[in-house]
Design brief:
Blueprint lengths: L16 H15 L1 H9 L7 H23 L4
Length: 75
């Protein structure tokens, strides 16, 4: 696990709040921290081969049912 240094921005002289915020945002972007947090935010359970197969069969059932509906839709 990576350890990150604290990210902070101190206001320089008469720098506007917007400029300070933009500078901070740029620092955060450079670290890639937000990307990492987004990835970690979602827990994904690894699917077993059995579950993948079951899902694929279900998907095929839905697709064939939809094809039938499309074909017979003008009745």
């Amino acid at each position: 696990m990576h350890r990150h240094m604290a990210i902070y921005a101190v206001k320089h002289g008469d720098e506007s709040n917007d400029a300070l915020q933009q500078r901070f945002k740029k620092q955060v972007q450079k670290t890639g921290l937000m990307k990492l947090m987004r990835e970690r935010g979602r827990f994904r359970r690894t699917r077993t081969r059995r579950m993948e197969r079951i899902r694929a069969l279900k998907r095929e059932e839905f697709r064939s049912a939809n094809r039938k509906k499309q074909f017979y839709s003008n009745m």
